[in-house]
Amino acid sequence: MSRIRQAEIIIGPLAEYEGRGNTSEALRIYSSGRKKDLRVQFSVKRTFGGAPNRTDLIITNLSEDSRNRLRNSLTRVEISAGYLEGEGAGLRKVASGAVTSAFPVDNPPDIETLVAFLDGFGGMSRGVFRKSFGPGVAVADVVRAVASSMPGVTIGSGALNISGKLGASGRTFAGRAAEILDNLSAQWGFSWSVQSGVFQAVDDRVPLATIHTLSYRDGSLRSVKPLLSGPMEIQTGVEIVGALNPRVNPGEQIRVESKINASLNGIYTAHEHDLVGGTAAADPWESTYRSISF
């Protein structure tokens, strides 16, 4: 018997870079896949690097007034999803970001509203930083200060697992925060990103400590296969598919327990995480992870 899915969309009331604001004034759209609810479909691409995560959202038969609320540039949108009952019941944040486009498409007898939004885009495009640091200052402290200048972006607790210190002469940083972070990451060997409005920086050699287990035993693992490249089809990583799991961020680890491909069992770093879901029974509801060998 299939489990009943649920999703909630929160629109506004402010632009993403202005923060959450008074959420009681936001537009809330709830869907559980029942006929009385609007159909919601989403596709999220979470990445390891500094490019903002992209989400594509489709809401079927949204009212004209609600469609108009999405037309304001950089309006904050948040998606949460989960099951109504059983293990993993409740709503968990899947994505949030700033609207970059929203328009209706006539698909008789329905009207589909297509929305695209980018995670942290408002803060990345507006953050400006200027400050001098003395010798021996931890790179993690510099990164935290620069990231804090991006409006609407918060700093994740424990998500700055980067090492190193500034040299004996110290250093002055000035310019767009995103560009400064790109330069720091290239010099000090880490990857930075914004995940649902939360900043993280991960050492390229040391993944985050969190480990998620996907196993054939409980059905959380659907498949695992090697990623092959070149004419000799050399393995360059693995692709792992499981049930939709918004808890996994790029940089965290996945323990794979496969019965079919036991040779691929082990612990991998999730460098990319695609989440695809929809509240109709026919819609997909899964997470795809890619771990790349460097």
Question: What features would you describe in this structure?
Answer:
The protein is mainly β and 294 residues long. It contains four helices and 19 strands. It has an eleven-stranded antiparallel beta sheet with strand order 2-1-5-6-7-4-3-18-19-15-14. The termini are far apart. The mean pLDDT is 91.
Main β-sheet, spatial strand arrangement: 2-1-5-6-7-4-3-18-19-15-14
Inertia-based shape = globular
Helix amount: 10-25%
- What is the gyration radius calculated from CA atoms? 20 Å
Separation of the first and last Cα atoms: 42 Å
Can you summarize the main beta sheet? 11 strands, antiparallel
- Portion in beta strands: over 45%
Note the total helix count: 4
From the helix content, strand content and strand pairing, which structural class follows?
A: mainly beta
The chain-level mean pLDDT equals 91
Number of strands: 19
Gist of the model:
The protein has helices at residues 64-69, 121-126, 139-147, 177-188, and strands at 5-15, 27-31, 40-46, 54-60, 75-83, 92-107, 110-118, 128-133, 154-161, 171-176, 190-195, 198-203, 211-215, 221-229, 234-243, 253-257, 266-269, 272-278, 285-292. With 294 residues, the chain is mainly beta. The chain has an eleven-stranded antiparallel beta sheet with strand order 2-1-5-6-7-4-3-18-19-15-14. Strands 9-12-11 form a three-stranded mixed beta sheet, with helices on one face.
